[in-house]
Task: structure prediction
Amino acid sequence: MTSRLFSGLLLACLPATGAHAIDALVFKAREVVAGGQRLADVSVRLTLGTEAATAATLEIAHIQPGGDLPGLRRLRLDCRAVVIADPRFGCTDARLTVAQTPLGSLSLTASGEYRADTSNATARLAIAKLAGGRLDLEAGSAQAGWRVDGRARDLQAAELRALLSPWFALPEGWTLEGHASGRFSARGGPTPMRAEATLALADINLSNEDSTIIAEGAAATLALALETREGGYGVDATLKGERGQALAGPVLLDFNQNPLTVHALGAWTGSTVDLTRIDVAAPRLLTMHGTAKVALGDTPGLASGHFVIDALEFPAAYTSLMQI
Result:
């Protein structure tokens, strides 16, 4: 790491109180370069005192990660309880604000600790206001491996859509309302990395511009598990349509009468997801199985598919497939 145009390192040797001869350490730099990252107007202040009174402040005017990653502006981190008690180092009470991010302005609370004797590290982070809801994260690292756990609650689908618009956007003319919540976890280390996530959608109202795809009062749950394999990831996904109705062209699905379960197994390699086994079941309506290949990238879509209907039951099949 290199730094340019230092404006100085100030040791504020103010009149000593108690046993401390230095009350604060201040570091400022016009620019800091680390690899492909650039930090502009960096300021760090460590206010010294007893362990309970030691605090730190970090301010960065602009962070440019490099590549095509978006930058951050006006970052401020306030640690009101710095821990410097060998072998424990960290902060038990921190607040981070960022005025400009791809997700808008962010404000979060955090805490973390590193133990020099065991090389174990833990961290917690909470965003109290995110897309109308809340996000909590917890992470840890040890010799046995690392872990990350998270929980999102009460997210508003419309606000979440706006939040994700830099990376994912529904086609023009689509409308979306409802609520979302979820959990996710990831583990890694000497054993292969494994990640699991659950997304629950409730009261979903969705429509495209031509009203050929519609969901009314729908509730669905998606459970996804990924595990590293040679050249990619193993995929295990389950989608459940539990309440409400959905229309897709000539097909009407009434989840209140015929809850839908779709289970898929396969592999994700590069920009292709190869689903080698797909099972679809809706009680008193149908069962079928098949395979499919999904192309990811700029325009995700179904590259190929083959399905076999094992059973189709009436009168539910008439309502779902033939009435419209």
Q: What stands out?
A: The CA atoms of residues 288 and 309 lie 4 Å apart. Confidence is low (pLDDT under 50) at residues 1-18.
